[in-house]
Amino acid sequence: MRYSFILEGLFLLPTALVAAVPVADIDPAMMDREVARLNGELEGRVDQPESPWINDNCFSPENVEEHKKDESCPKKNELKQGSQGDWYCPIKIGNNCESYCEQNLSWTFGKEQPFDNASCRAGSDCSLSITQSVTITETTSFNFGISHSAFSLGASFSFSDSKSTANGISHSKPDDLKDNCGYWTFVPYMVTSCGRSAKADIHKNIINKWCANRVDGDMCVTRAYKTKSGTAGGKAIFVATDCDSNKPLPFCKQDEVFLKAGVARDEQVHIDYKASWWDGDQSKGPTGTAKYQCELGNWPMQ
After folding, report:
1. Which residue from 59, 95, 135, 214 lies 20 to 30 Å from 198 (Cα-Cα)?
2. pTM score, whole prediction
3. Signal sequence span per UniProt (predicted)?
4. What is the structure's pLDDT at 213?
5. Which has the closest alpha carbon to 188: 238, 224, 150, 137?
6. What span, in angstroms and rounded, lies between the C-alpha atoms of 102 and 73?
């Protein structure tokens, strides 16, 4: 015979004993559910993440400045202030003693992903078709101490290891690059969630479970931005190349997005562009000499 009741007035302390219920007759699964019910911890379990992707009404690369740390999205988990004035992310047994409290979102352009069969010869129109696509590859490591699902419960987007696909948009080769070789590439928007995480060991006795040995930390997670349709968001651009070596041409022949740090597959692209700035200051842009030499095809200067 199994007892189907628990005295709700009982204080469920880790060391509590229940003389009224024979230990041998307790169903462990039933006990776990009842304890969680009494403690109000059945809501929002880590295997039940909320929306599949970010709410673009509060955050979108189209309306937030690149690199800006934005706090517009509602917080799923709020930080709480401790007795010593420190701020921490709450944990509870119902979420496996782990949690994530997002503080801000930001975005930047990621590494280029060339479209398949999108190379262009000199003199050709070489348009990009909406039927062409590219698979966005991402690093799938997640070594932050908490699970994917715990992160998703506190972040504005859900973590996923699945690959995303970007579709081409109907684009024509830039008029000033008609005589150049090149290729079409996709530069994804990469969204970063930064916040505070917490994780503890799960301890239990016959009637209860609790969190112990808590560890807190700051963390940031970056993933490719997805649109409402589930495809990757970003920019499709044309990269001008040397017809013989296939190396990218100097900065004056390239889309400004391609020149950003971390975008081109060849890091030298950004290094050479950086060398053109007035006083090494990107906000001042390239010097007149650098622009002139670039148009002559002599940049970086030998």
Report:
1. 59
2. 0.77
3. 1-20
4. 95
5. 224
6. 10
